[in-house]
Amino acid sequence: MKTLDDIAIACQTDRASVFTRTYGKPHDYARHYDKLFTPLREQPIKFAEIGVGGGEGVQMWLRYFEHEDSRIFGVDVVTGTNDWDTPGVMASLEPRYAFTQGTQCDPEFWKRFIEAHGGDFDVICDDGLHSNIAVITTFNALWQHVKPGGFYAVEDLSVAYGGPSFFVSPDWPDQVSFLKGKIDELNRGGEIDSIYFSKELAVLRKSL
Q1: With the C-alpha atoms ordered 50, 203, 123, 97, is the resulting torsion angle positive or negative?
Q2: What is the pTM of this model?
Q3: Active-site amino acid positions
Q4: DSSP H or E segment with residue 58
Q5: Residues 106-151: pLDDT tens digits?
Q6: 125 φ, ψ to 5°?
Q7: How far is residue 101 from each of residues 113, 123, 176, 206, measured CA to CA in Å?
Q8: Where are the chain's structural domains?
Q9: What CATH number does domain 39-206 carry, 3.30.950.30, 3.90.940.20, 3.40.50.150, 2.40.30.10?
């Protein structure tokens, strides 16, 4: 059985350990995800991918979570640039996938998203705008909709450093400081079972 990194390399997503495109860099997230998600691999999971781009990541998850009843929900602020970020295009080709356009910085968008698709997600992966406003708004809206024992991932945390920028509004905690606060919540007991950190990546697991 192929590892998630094998699949990521084949799909040419930057989550792979090897990335041969002329832009971007290999973030090497896939091998970390594999450690955490292997127990879910053959189950009918519900997965939200925030930040669809060209669809490479979505294709990776569809190949990894192959159960016929698994569902992948893609979300992006951009729409209409390819088949994977255009509503309805993939419905007949890949019925396990659905795309929704919207900004993750808007709590009202997430309310509509949950009303349309329900909660109880096994995995939510935030690879979207990466800004602290987007990361915090999305987490606050969606963490409650992660299943007990489910996972919530935040990628590309390197953008949290370097002072005010598109990625770090001074009016909000930066992304890493926000996650450090989750360590305090973990140690006090509650809904967070564990937090897995690797370079530029944090994955929180919800308590059972």
Answers
A1: positive
A2: 0.97
A3: 130
A4: helix 56-64
A5: 999 999 999 999 999 999 999 999 999 999 999 999 999 999 999 9
A6: -120, 115
A7: 10, 19, 27, 27
A8: 39-206
A9: 3.40.50.150
